[in-house]
Design a protein that fits this description.
Layout (H helix, E strand, L loop, with lengths): L9 H7 L26 H6 L12 H14 L3 E5 L2 H10 L7 E5 L4 H13 L3 E5 L15 E7 L11 H10 L3 E5 L4 H4 L9 E4 L14 E5 L4 H10 L6 H12 L1 H20 L4 E5 L9 H7 L6 E6 L4 H9 L16 E5 L16 E5 L5 H17 L1
Parallel strand pairs: 2-3, 2-4, 4-5, 5-6
Antiparallel strand pairs: 1-7, 6-7, 8-9, 9-11, 10-11
């Protein structure tokens, strides 16, 4: 007995969305299409521009396969791919604003998003107001007739505040503002933005969708009402991801569910272990009971990824360096979402403006990869020993 596409469970759709083996001589994976020029068979066809593909920048079967799969999995109307997560963010913001407009942006947003607002948008005459990510429906008090969009990111970058997206969306829509969400942490599997009132969902597909730290990729998924505006800006900016990167995104997507389950389980186990360490003052993980964001996470999300933060008890910079420099499994580097574990110090005090970050010790963001958890504990245990010795 076959099942209809609508009745299929998420993992089944994850394995099959966007695929059409019959179109490619039975090959399971959509081939990599490289190229710029696409030929037309006749002058009539050229003038009518009525074939599926017209130019490499405007799409290929490889690009279409991933775009179709992501839109289906996230519950959106359409997806457009970009060369990076930041390009997805910048293209989306530019799609809805003009000189003289205002936008509202969460204070815990990914810092490059903030830079784009403060540099590019400001230069174009668009004003940005940052708001407390925990404001919820209270955001109504910040909305004006000039507010064109509300930008959300949940959980927040580095500090993992969980936003009340439905309440924010309800208030924004009453004033005609578009709601945009950076959904990279939860992926299309663990948070369904369009069922919570979001109009446009953004992913740094570089992270969990690619999943192997070997490609740069961004994705913008829209609802029906916002598609035209985003598609126009996407086209006019000439955004075009590389064909190999798109293929790697397709490859990574097929194993996303099993990888995320491991990241989630290992991340929660590591968070509990770290909470019991004498060197740790605070663990910030929204899927951990007792976390300030736990109730909203439990209400709106169906899972958690492997990214969270901790705050150490006060120590010297020399001691912190001794801990981090000697780690063998946790690498120090930007990005996350790959199979490897990462650790990175951060301090948002210099760039937050609507909220304050008040901790006494050093803060560390951890990405828990696919290594054995006991080995990861041993690596950090040795690091804590070096910290104490220093």
């Amino acid at each position: 007995m076959s099942t209809s596409k609508k009745s299929q469970k998420q993992d089944t759709r994850l394995a099959h969305a966007g695929r059409d083996p019959a179109r490619f001589d039975g090959f399971v994976n959509t081939p990599i299409y490289r190229g710029s020029t696409v030929l037309y068979p006749t002058l009539q066809c050229l003038e009518a521009n009525d074939q599926d593909y017209s130019y490499g920048r405007l799409g290929t079967p490889t690009v279409d396969a991933l775009q179709t799969a992501l839109a289906e999995l996230e519950g959106g109307h359409a997806t457009l791919l970009t060369p990076s997560g930041l390009s997805a963010i910048s293209a989306t913001l530019l799609s809805f604003v003009s000189s003289g407009d205002d936008i509202l942006v969460s204070d815990s947003v990914y810092r490059p998003t903030r830079r784009f607002c403060e540099n590019v948008l400001k230069r174009l005459g668009v004003a940005t107001t940052y708001y407390d990510p925990l404001i919820g429906g209270g955001i109504a008090g910040l909305l004006t007739d000039k507010t064109k969009l509300v930008f959300t990111e949940s959980p927040g970058s580095q500090t993992f505040e969980v936003q009340d997206i439905p309440a924010i969306a309800e208030a924004a829509h009453k004033r005609g503002a578009v709601v945009i969400m950076d959904n990279t942490w939860a992926t299309p599997l663990y948070f369904k933005p369009f069922s919570h009132g979001v109009d446009v969902s953004i992913h740094a597909a570089t992270k969990y969708i690619v999943g192997h730290a070997d490609a740069m990729l961004g994705a913008i998924t829209t609802n029906k009402a916002t598609r035209a505006a985003v598609a126009r800006t996407h086209d006019e900016l000439g955004l075009c991801p590389g064909p190999e990167d798109v293929y790697l995104g397709l490859r990574g997507l097929r194993s996303l569910s099993v990888r995320l389950a491991r990241h989630q389980a290992s991340g929660l186990e590591m968070a509990e272990w770290l909470a019991g360490r004498p060197e740790v003052a605070q663990v910030i993980h929204p899927a951990r009971p007792g976390d300030p964001g736990y109730a909203l996470w439990q209400r709106d999300f169906t899972g958690a990824s492997g990214l969270f933060s901790i705050v150490l008890k006060p120590c010297s910079q020399k001691a912190l360096a001794a801990m981090l420099d000697g780690l063998t499994l946790f690498g120090m580097g930007y990005s996350w979402g790959g199979y490897e574990s990462l650790i990175l110090p951060f301090d948002p005090r210099s760039y937050r403006s609507a909220t304050t970050w008040q901790v006494e010790g050093s803060a560390l963001r951890l990405h828990i990869g696919l290594e054995d958890v006991e080995d990861l504990k041993a690596d950090l245990d040795a690091g804590f020993a070096r910290l104490a010795k220093a």
